[in-house]
Design a protein that fits this description.
This protein is α+β, with helices and mostly antiparallel strands. The protein contains 4 helices and 7 strands. A 7-stranded mixed β-sheet has the order 1-2-3-4-5-7-6, with helices on both faces.
Length: about 170
């Protein structure tokens, strides 16, 4: 198993992981499966903003999971904060891949001088909560009934990790 930087060549396996999460879980508050065309736009946004897409592949070079981060909110004062997500292929969950990907996300965010990592986690996703808290993420709030999926209201919990970067933050105009 090895960590890779995903490219558009990984769009299909990422799409399959996304769509499984959309159709079978509350990890994504989405209803409809995504398309390859949507993945093109997703990768273009990641590339344009220098946001990494980190993957883990097995010895056969099959993508087992991935993670990334992106803009938390579009206003300039939030430019040191990013919201991340990570997804593991359903047949590879429970093998420690989330730890590998989250560690890489934290390292890359630190390298890029971000200060705050935010995770929006469905309140019933105990595995994700446990993963994040094991890395020092702290519960920072709940939005009750933020989503509606599978005929029920979903509460969205936020967890955050403060990094020691940047050394000299500045107010910038974007």
């Amino acid at each position: 198993m090895k960590v890779i930087s995903c490219t558009k060549a990984h769009a299909q396996p990422i799409l399959e992981i996304f769509n499984d999460a959309i159709l079978n879980s509350t990890a994504l508050y989405d209803y409809k499966p995504r398309t390859l065309q949507m993945m093109d736009t997703w990768f273009e946004t990641k590339s344009k903003n220098n946001f990494p897409v980190i993957g883990v592949v097995n010895d056969e070079n099959e993508l087992m999971g991935f993670g990334s981060y992106g803009t938390f909110r579009a206003w300039p004062a939030y430019h040191y904060t990013v919201e991340h997500s990570l997804y593991i292929r359903n047949d590879h969950r429970g093998k420690g891949l989330g730890k590998i990907i989250l560690r890489e996300i934290i390292q890359e965010a630190t390298r890029q001088n971000y200060h705050c990592l935010v995770a929006g986690i469905d309140s019933t996703n105990i595995a994700s909560v446990n993963l994040h808290t094991s890395f020092g993420f702290e519960f920072s709030g709940r939005i009750k009934q933020a989503g509606y999926k599978f005929q029920r209201w979903l509460d969205l919990d936020f967890y955050q990790l403060l990094l020691h970067t940047p050394e000299h933050p500045v107010e910038e105009s974007f």
